[in-house]
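User: structure tokens for this one?
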Amino acid sequence: MPDATWVLGISALYLVICLILGVLPGRGASASTEGFVAGDRSLGLVVMYFITGATIFSAFAFLGLPGWAYSRGASAFYILGYGTLGFVPFYFLGPRASRVGRKLGFVTQAQMMATRFRSAPVAGVMAAVSLVAFVPYLALQMKGAGFVLETVSGGSIPTWVGAAVVYGVVLVYVLKSGVLGVGWTNTFQGLFMMLLAWGLGLYLPHVLYGGVGPMFEQIAETRPELLLAPGLASGGKPWSFGEYGSAVIVSIVGFSVWPHLFMKAFTAKSEATLQRTVVLYPTFQIFLLPLLFIGFAGVHFASPPASADQILPHILMNSPIPASVVGLFCAGALAASMSSGDAMAHAAAAICVRDGVVTAFGRTLEPARERALIRWAVVGVMVVSYLVAVVYQGSLVILLLTAYGAVVQFAPGVVAALYAPRAGRAGVLWGMVAGSLVTLVLVVWPELRPWHVHAGVYGLVVNVATLVALSWGRAADARDEEFVATARGATRAG
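Assistant:
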């Protein structure tokens, strides 16, 4: 087993570098809420690429993705499917949101929606659903960080302590620098993870099997069910194509409307920057592929891990691998967790204050007061997420899919806001409420689903039907047409 002291030393050095990179950009931002939340709308292509791309390299990528490949085989391929296509809707939605954001000063998704539909309750519902989705997603990142430190320390650092240490660092630089700290640390973390993923993804199959090809040949002989789509469900039972396909659909539809991603429409320098980011984004899937190799490499490993999500650190800690390699993995896994967690904590806090307090409740706050409240909200969101991470014992990927079921309910309203001037506030509001309630009920009581598809699909169908029914026959007024015309990049005549 590698020397834990050396491994933890490399991890500590990595955390110090992230702290420095996260704190320094805050010195150049304005003291306004727009500076803290939107980075004064100054993010260029490189930072935008990594701040969006590093999001998919979350804790689930370094832990949950290999865990699913190890235990469920081809089921894990759904992640490549939605990861490739998930950001495509943003190619069309992002520039439209950017145009109205620059003209009207938006910094959050729900703020845009409340203005378009002239409805404070819309912002309130979106803020509530966002927090419900963000807490498990952020908890996933924290739990992943804790898993890593617990494993590489041989159990001397419990999961709850490891998560607290790592996210203590995240808390400091998010409070200090806001989105600029998130952006520059994500750039560093993204580059680091790319190199590490391919290094480990080729190294471990070579050490354990003699290469990637021989590894798959051996699995095909002894465990062929792992290589047949759509793979396995939990407990080793076959996963249906309905479950597989619906997981892909929910993830694609929900991807672009995740608030922390959608808010980047209000931070980019230009519309061209947004569209180039979308075009480049699928290249991140290239760096997920070696993480699948790592999971499959564990299929015939001598001993099983305590849980499937720990297969990667388990292999490293129980193989004759240099401590420096294990230390780099540990730092890379922490990078994966932090690169998503910091963006989520920052976005959730901004949504809580700007959408929940200012927009939904109509409070007028001085910029300094609003910024201070957002900082306090960062602390609150991270504490709640930390408690969930400590208590939750299930799969990291299942936790992620549950979060997608909630956030996908934003998609119909966002599309209606930017494209359909006849869509009304009642349809959007009650569509989100109905869709979210249906999703929640079917997550809690999955036996009520008539077919084995993701609960979010049922919620999405109810959402769209409600929006259309309550907007049917409604005539658009001048303000609706002006908003959609602005989003389209045109000025309404007359």
